[in-house]
Specification:
The complex is a heterodimer of chains A (313) and B (414). Chain A is mainly alpha-helical. Chain A is 74% helix and 3% strand. Chain A has one domain (2-258). In chain A, strands 1-2 form a two-stranded antiparallel ribbon. In chain A, α6 (163-173) crosses α8 (185-210). Chain A is globular and about 70 Å long. The relative contact order of chain A is 0.18. Chain B has 414 residues and is an alpha/beta fold. Chain B has helices spanning 3-20, 40-59, 79-91, 103-119, 153-166, 182-198, 217-225, 237-249, 266-270, 289-303, 310-327, 337-346, 397-400, and strands at residues 28-33, 69-74, 96-99, 126-129, 146-148, 173-179, 201-208, 230-233, 255-258, 278-281, 348-351, 354-358, 365-366, 369-375, 388-395. In chain B, α8 links the parallel β8 (230-233) and β9 (255-258). In chain B, α2 runs parallel beside α11 (310-327), α3 (79-91) packs parallel to α4 and α5 (153-166) runs parallel beside α6 (182-198). The longest helix of chain B is centred in the first third of the chain and has 20 residues, at 40-59. Classes of the chains: A mainly alpha (313), B alpha/beta (414). The interface between A and B is large, with 47 and 40 residues.
């Protein structure tokens, strides 16, 4: 029982981390209509900025300042690169963001070296929140989860309950109309892009200390974040949350399970046959865990191409 | 004569000339490594080490009075790129191919070289595998022109387990946690295989995806539930770091026995989390202090950093190549790969860790292994931290040796 509890908790926290990064991505997608390949690079930048700032300002100020810096980078990227490319169509925007992600990764390698850097939790945060049947649960995990939930609530309230939110949402769906009503749509886009980048930067600053901060971290998380956004429905905030949790929890449960397809076939009396065939049938669930998100994505794309909560086709 | 004709005939003449002068060309060695992209960090270390040692060989006269020419090819991290680059290297006249990172790439290179040699008898090329440690490379896939200068999974795991057993830290319950590909499976099999000999129980075996997992806490939970004292893992890079961090975060009291804990950045990133964990590797900076320090300092003067991870092993492997080249005489068409192969089998090199040699039966290097532990007492610190590796047990080349695999059916040229 404790095992399952832990697995659920772990999965939820990992899901919340995925959400922190995919929230910005899905916002930007809703706005630009293309996936921002450089988004996970903002996550990486957040971690490296916080790592650089930590010795100067201390951990707390570092994780506040790093996202602000990343927001600055995001705004510059939107204002001076993407806006110029926008009129040439989606393919160009995609290529530019892809190129940007490569450039950022190489620049990180030039400045900080090719290997993982020494960005760690401050000692005062490195303690166990509670202990269940002999396993400590790190407090920092709960802290990361808390930040993600706080972020979700803040964005949700901002988008649904404020005037700014109304303008942003309408600018996403009917930019020309909103512009005709006298709102500065390019400014709104720039703001959304900056905030999206800052969210990813915050996730990086917080998670980089707990996992590892290395030049590949954008690549490692990037793929998973795209899966989340596609499964959740492109442009849907609630969908991103649901998909993040779904992927986090299935992943965590699958790792702990020794389930094999062959066991299922034993129920219908085909166990022997399955053992003989081997291959996929006798593969343990735990060794397939990291593949499951892609399987979920495939399933969603087949059954519901717009994603769990997506509205756009 | 039109210009086009003129250009053609000149080009043809140049071809003729270059073919005629091929015999006088220096020996070409091609490094086919991952020099760009996310996996480049290890590939660039191989390059540093190769450049260093080829430089040494050239200082002492090169081959046949000519300096050896080192060609570099970027395989971009995958078997497909490697296959392409190996072809390019051979067509540029390389006689020896060097490659190290990833057993998956090594598997491709060794097959390509084998096939090329079948089709081009008398004009073979040699493949020196600097670091692909999967068993099949000197097992089912072994062939006469493949030489491995790094340890393999059996050597790593058995020396590691022996050393940990002797230090009294192995415990009774061992968990095998590995990456799901040839190397990880080999580490798992060898861990299970040693259980009876050393009197421990393998409580559970897990194979997981390679470098895709961010959150290792579910795996740590399994380790805890299985009641393991020790985790033996062949994991490298992030898979190793995240596993150790998750384990320490969960307050788990297990000891890790690893093969690649000395990768740069690992100790810096893990910090105190890595303390007390074990590693079995062909090098430690504190063994034979006099010669080793001289080597360390010289390496630092040339490359700018102390040798670590794959670098010492690579240098030692090329020392052996250098010794073999001393035995071989250059012929008119340059180097005869078959002669170099024989010379490699007969050569021994004196490294700071002790003598090394090549076993003729499967072309696996026989070298000393050092079981070591992460501690603050180390003389050379890793990654500017207070930690480094202190030797626990030096296992001589003879004791580290593991039997030739039955699956290796090497055809020797008659």
């Amino acid at each position: 029982m404790d095992q399952i509890l832990f697995a659920l908790l772990n999965g939820t926290i990992y899901g919340l981390l995925l959400f922190m990064v995919s929230a910005g991505l899905t916002l930007i997608f809703g706005m630009m209509g293309v996936l921002n390949f450089a988004h996970a690079s903002f996550y990486m930048l957040g971690a490296y900025f916080a790592y650089t700032l930590q010795p100067l300002t201390g951990f707390w100020l570092a994780i506040i300042l790093a996202p602000i810096l990343v927001m600055g980078v995001g705004i510059l990227v939107e204002r001076f690169i993407l806006r110029h490319v926008h009129e040439h169509g989606h393919a160009h925007e995609l290529l530019v963001t892809f190129g940007l992600s490569v450039v950022i990764a190489e620049m990180i390698k030039m400045v900080y070296g090719k290997f993982a850097v020494d960005y760690r939790l401050p000692a005062e945060l490195n303690f166990a929140a509670f202990s269940l049947s002999g396993i400590d649960y790190p407090f920092y995990r709960l802290f990361m989860g808390g930040i993600a939930i706080g972020m979700f609530i803040a964005i949700y309230l901002l988008l649904t309950k404020t005037r700014v939110g109304i303008v942003v949402r309408s600018a996403i769906y009917r930019p020309q109309m909103v512009e005709a009503l006298g709102h500065n749509v390019p400014m709104v886009f720039m703001g959304v892009f900056g905030i999206g980048a800052a969210l990813a930067g915050l996730a990086g600053a917080v998670a980089g200390a707990f996992y590892t901060t290395n030049p590949n971290m954008a690549l490692e998380l990037g793929v998973m974040v795209f899966v989340v956004v596609v499964v959740g429905g492109l442009g849907s905030m609630g969908g991103a949350m649901a998909a993040s949790l779904l992927i986090g929890i299935t992943n965590s449960l699958a790792v702990g399970s020794d389930f094999r397809l062959a066991d299922l076939m034993t129920w219908v009396g085909m166990g022997g046959f399955a053992e003989e065939v081997g291959g996929l049938l006798t593969m343990r669930m735990s060794s397939l865990a990291a593949t499951l998100p892609f399987f979920i994505m495939l399933l969603v794309l087949v059954l519901r191409p717009s994603g769990l909560m997506g509205e756009k086709e | 004569m039109t210009f086009r004709n003129f250009a053609r005939s000149t080009a043809a003449m140049m071809l003729v000339f270059s073919a005629a002068s091929a015999g006088a060309e220096p020996l070409k060695i091609a490094l086919v490594e991952t020099l760009s992209g996310p996996q480049a960090s290890t590939g660039l270390l191989y390059r540093d080490a190769v450049k260093y040692q080829i430089g040494k060989i050239n200082e002492s006269g090169g081959f046949g009075g000519e300096p050896i020419e080192l060609l570099e090819f970027d395989n971009q991290g995958g078997p497909v790129g490697a296959a392409d680059r190996v072809r390019a290297a051979i067509s540029e006249g390389a006689d020896v191919i060097l490659q190290g990172s990833s057993s998956a790439v090594a598997g491709q290179v060794t097959e390509d070289v084998r096939k090329y040699n079948l089709r081009n008898a008398g004009n073979e090329v040699l493949y020196i595998n600097l670091g692909g440690e999967a068993m099949e490379l000197t097992g089912a896939k072994c062939h006469y022109y493949h030489f491995r200068t790094s340890p393999n999974a059996a050597i790593r795991v058995n020396t590691l387990l022996d050393g940990m057993k002797e230090a009294g830290v192995l415990g009774d319950n061992v968990y095998a946690m590995n990456q799901n590909y040839s190397w990880g499976v080999d580490v798992q099999d060898n861990t299970v295989g040693a259980a009876e000999r050393l009197g421990f129980t393998v409580v559970e075996q897990t194979l997981h995806d390679v470098n895709k997992i961010q959150d290792f806490s579910p795996y740590v939970q399994r380790v805890q539930a299985a009641g393991a004292d020790t985790v033996i893992t062949g994991n490298w890079s992030n898979d190793l770091l995240l596993l150790m961090k998750a384990s320490s975060g969960a307050g788990l009291d297990v000891r890790f026995g690893t093969a690649f804990l000395d990768q740069p950045g690992n100790i810096g990133n893990a910090g105190a989390v890595a303390e007390g964990h074990f590693l079995s590797a062909p090098f430690n900076a504190e063994v034979n202090p006099e010669e080793t320090s001289a080597f360390m300092e010289d390496y630092k003067t040339v490359t700018g950093h102390y040798p670590s991870y794959v670098e010492p092993t690579t240098v030692f492997g090329l020392m052996l190549l250098g010794e073999a080249l001393k035995i071989v005489e250059p012929t008119e068409d340059g180097l005869k790969a078959a002669e170099l192969a024989v010379a490699l089998e007969n050569a021994t090199a004196e490294t700071p860790m002790g003598p090394i040699s090549m076993r003729a039966d499967d072309h696996q290097i026989i070298q000393p292994m050092i079981v070591q532990k992460v501690s603050t007492e180390a003389k050379y610190k890793a990654d500017d931290t207070e930690f480094g590796f202190v030797p626990i047990k030096v296992i001589s080349a003879v004791d580290a040796e593991q039997p030739v695999q039955d699956s290796c059916k090497m055809k020797r040229p008659s």
